[in-house]
Structure to design on (221 residues):
């Protein structure tokens, strides 16, 4: 199995902050990485696919970068609607795996 | 717009089989090379990928669940299904179906309890 490790587990930030979340894969996954946002009681929502491609309808303050084993999700100018939990997921191998999640809290 | 809806028993007894069906609307499960997935989330925890299946019936499973999981697809009904055998209380979770990566069902809480 490919292990996905996110950091930090929790992040406290203020509206307007720039936020960066890191996801590391235990082996190379090329660019086969997605980022999701999940709010309580809701299904995850796709933000980024193929490491850096923005899903249609997602605000441009969200961006993704990286390849191989190191990836980042950046939120520029954090908005009140962005306080949520974020997950990375690799889809390089037939056995998909998620990161453990990063909760973005209000500071 | 593709929509997915999970259905099935919300309460399952220990040692029995959990069965859920995902009905797809707004698009054909037969078209495209999409993977149709099941993911679960234990209460207050992160996401766990269970497996996915293609419209051909070719399926891939989480190695940790492989011995107990079976996925199937019914293209005539535009549905795909999950069966999880020999459940325990540890299988209590919200179960999501999805079209990888961008269309998800709302999720259904399945409780394993006697």
């Amino acid at each position: 199995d490919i292990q996905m490790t996110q950091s930090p587990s929790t992040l406290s930030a203020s509206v307007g902050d720039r936020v960066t979340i890191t996801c590391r894969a235990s082996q190379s996954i090329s660019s086969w990485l997605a980022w999701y946002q999940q709010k309580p009681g809701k299904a995850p929502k796709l933000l980024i696919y193929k490491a850096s491609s923005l899903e249609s309808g997602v605000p441009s303050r969200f961006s993704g970068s990286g390849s191989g084993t190191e990836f980042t999700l950046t939120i520029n100018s954090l908005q009140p609607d962005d306080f949520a939990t974020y997950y990375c997921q690799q889809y390089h191998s037939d056995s998909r795996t998620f990161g453990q999640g990063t909760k973005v809290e209000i500071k | 717009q593709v929509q997915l809806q999970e259905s099935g028993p919300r309460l399952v007894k220990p040692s029995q089989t959990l069965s859920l069906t995902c009905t797809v609307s707004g698009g054909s499960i037969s078209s495209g090379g999409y993977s149709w997935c099941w993911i679960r989330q234990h209460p207050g925890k992160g996401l766990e990928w269970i497996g996915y299946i293609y419209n051909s019936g070719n399926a891939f499973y989480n190695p940790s669940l492989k011995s107990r999981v079976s996925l199937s697809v019914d293209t005539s009904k535009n549905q795909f299904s999950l069966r999880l055998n020999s459940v325990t209380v540890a299988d209590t979770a919200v179960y999501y179906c999805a079209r990888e990566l961008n269309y998800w069902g709302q999720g259904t809480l399945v409780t394993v309890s006697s």
